[in-house]
Amino acid sequence: MILRYTDIFESGKAHRVKAEITTEHSASSYGMPVVVLEDGNLIDATSWTMLNYQIISITKKEAPMMEKWLGNLYNMLGITSLGRKGGSAKSPKKAAASRKNALLGGRPKGSGSLTPLQKQALDLKQSGMTIREIAQAMDRQPENIRQLVARAENKMKKEEER
């Protein structure tokens, strides 16, 4: 594969290098691939991020290993930018819920009406309860309640502006 990186020590000059991803290296453990440069050095998480490495070209054989390597790298760094595989793929549970909601009719998209949960959370908030009290009453996390109330208030504000 061909990689490009920015050399932070040479005033940001871009370089291209050849590299190989393999599980047949002594630094590889438990089947985790490692990226080996032409000179035998490895690319670690710090180098990948600090030097802004980018993949220029990769073979079909290397792509799945690179995806695994990058997934592990992003997990270590706490980054979720790879998202889920397939883009719009749904879990079986979500697909079943979507089918059930479709049968019920649901709310028209863009209708601005509140969901039952948003209405309940907003009503409780307007009655003077705190976010924590609402969360306990609705058996939800406080952050979830904050989001429900914020979305409900935004929808109500948009309806008032009409």
Oligomer: single chain
| Shape descriptor | elongated
Count of the domains: 2
Topology order in helix (H) and strand (E) letters: EEEEHEHHHHH
Number of helices: 6
Question: Which structural class should the secondary elements be placed in?
Answer: alpha+beta
Helix content estimate: 40-55%
- Report the major sheet: 5 strands, antiparallel
Strand order of the largest sheet: 4-3-2-1-5
Keywords for this entry:
five-stranded antiparallel sheet; 162 residues; 6 helices; 2 domains; 16% strand
Question: How would you characterize the overall build of this protein?
Answer:
The protein is α+β, with helices and mostly antiparallel strands. The protein has two domains: 2-77, no CATH class; 110-161. The protein has six helices and five strands, in the order E-E-E-E-H-E-H-H-H-H-H. It has helices at 45-50, 62-77, 92-104, 116-126, 131-138, 142-161; strands at residues 2-7, 13-22, 34-37, 42-43, 54-57. A five-stranded antiparallel beta sheet has the order 4-3-2-1-5. The termini are far apart. The mean pLDDT is 82.
